[in-house]
Design goal:
With 228 residues, the protein is of the alpha+beta class. The protein has three domains: 6-75, no CATH class; 87-165, no CATH class; 179-226, no CATH class. The chain contains six helices and seven strands, in the order ααααβββαββββα. Strands 3-2-1-4-5 form a five-stranded antiparallel β-sheet, with no helix packed on it. A two-stranded antiparallel sheet has the order 6-7. The chain starts with 5 loop residues before the first helix and ends with a helix.
Length: 228
Amino acid sequence: MTLWAGPHLAAVMHHQAENATAYVSERLAESRLSVPEAAVGDGPQSPLGRAEDAKHRCDLVGEVGALLSGHDALTRAPWYPSQPGDRLKVTVEATESEPRWTETYEVTEDGRALRHVEHTAPDDDLAGWFAGPPEFVDSDPFETPWMEAGPDRLAITRGGRIVHQGRHALARPDTAEARVATAASADSGVGLAVVHERESTPAEHDALQARIIARGAEATTRHQRQNP
């Protein structure tokens, strides 16, 4: 597992200044780069990923700023800090060779570590990397997945209630199990049908809703043209 603070420490050492953090904070205030998720698009993002991108651009302010703003977003969350029994679900997006999958962790009774509960990964070796105590002593168990996977990919549940829902996170694992539902036929008949329903993320739901609205607008425009 990549130590999320690595780029931060490397940047500070590279800058060779004891007040590097203060320097960066001042620059962030001037450039407004401290705003989480600023100008990152709609894809899944993580503080570590944004820091790595800035590092490749040799952008010290952007690199450290991504980490500082990511950590600040975590500690300012209304549900922070984590509590024993909290559940965290990580959603890993699909690739050309692997389907989308999820893994679930639970904060241990002493509140100091994450216990791996379950996963839907195609390979057992892909899951469970966030299990155990956090990277740093006395830090929050959610800190490493928040910084490395990113809040976009996380869904956090407390007492059965979702307290954090990432835009690209599933609240429940995908399922291929069929279920029986009430359905209406073309002739207005009502009966039972077997359906397969896929879970969707907030981002997917919004995209689907936008497509439905766009198609509705197209249909309305077409109808108006055909019936002036």
